[in-house]
Amino acid sequence: MARLDIAVSVLGAGSMGGAIASGLVSAGMIDATRVSVCDLREEALVPFGAQGMTCLTSADELVAQDADVVVLAVKPQVLPVVVAPLSAQLAGRLVVSIAAGVTLATLEELLPSAHVVRVMPNLPLQVLSGATAVCPGSYATAEEARLVRELFAALGSAQVMTEAQLDVAGAVTGCGPAFFALFVDDLVRTGVRAGLPAAACREMVLATMRGVAQQLLDSGEHPRAYMEKVTSPGGTTAVALEAMEGDLFYACADAIDAALARTRELAGA
User: Hey, what long-range contacts does 84-89 have (CB within 8 A, 24 or more apart)?
Assistant: First the structure.
């Protein structure tokens, strides 16, 4: 992966903003001296300063860095208040928003002269195994869209989508890590209920999940084909899947519907 000779500024050093800044550096995509991070909480900036990044507590100072890419990593509820005063300074610049539910139309109204790209990343970016949907706005060029995809591809998988698809991806992959964690926790608790020691059960379940994910990634195999490998006719896995699958599918569908409904609420729809 070739290192890019560009500067990136990240407004917000929370879980996601911090993961983006640190990930770009640890992946070798951007030199640490070319990354700036801003947050009101000085203590939140300490890890980034230790990596050699520029740390700031003023959004005005951050955008004054004249970075090639400015990432807005603030909560959707406060994004309008935070970015509206920066409109003039961000004119003509490539601005990437990770705010769930804040549409391109809203962003381009707040930043009418900026080249806006929406992205929906997820928390596994922290270990360079994230999933990010990318959607360029009206004024972003094809080259800028490619650049944003390249940056986030360094942190895992990145796919260009329509805005409607991006919101669905945000529900599926953005909420997905919590879904997987919930499934692991439930599987561990049922194992404990059936008599397994909690710590040992948790370790074995996590090892299993890691192994399945790695095998599917390495092989490119369809999940159904993988399931067939471990499902003997009339065996324990077959009856267990029969008991689980219907309810699990509808639970996932209900969860995604709920997440999309909340996305629409955040967008003010």
Answer: 84/110, 85/59, 85/60, 86/59, 86/60, 86/111, 87/111, 87/112, 87/113, 87/114, 89/60, 89/63, 89/64
Q: With bands split at pLDDT 50, 70 and 90, how would you rate the model's confidence at 11?
A: very high
Residues 229 and 259 both lie in one domain: yes
C-alpha span between 266 and 95 (Å, rounded): 20
* Domain containing residue 227: CATH number: 1.10.3730.10
Average per-residue pLDDT in the chain?
93
Asked whether the predicted pLDDT for residue 269 surpasses 60, the reply is: no
* CATH assignment of the domain containing 110: 3.40.50.720
37-55: buried (b, 16+ CB within 10 Å) or exposed (e) per residue?
Answer: bbbeeeebbeebeeeebbb
In this predicted model, what pLDDT tens digit does every residue of 178-211 receive, in sequence order? 999 999 999 999 999 999 999 999 999 999 999 9
Are residue 115 and residue 176 in the same domain, yes or no? no
Question: Distance between CA atoms of 93 and 44, rounded to whole angstroms?
Answer: 26
Contacts of 109 (CB under 8 A, 6+ apart): none
pLDDT over threshold 70, residue 174: yes
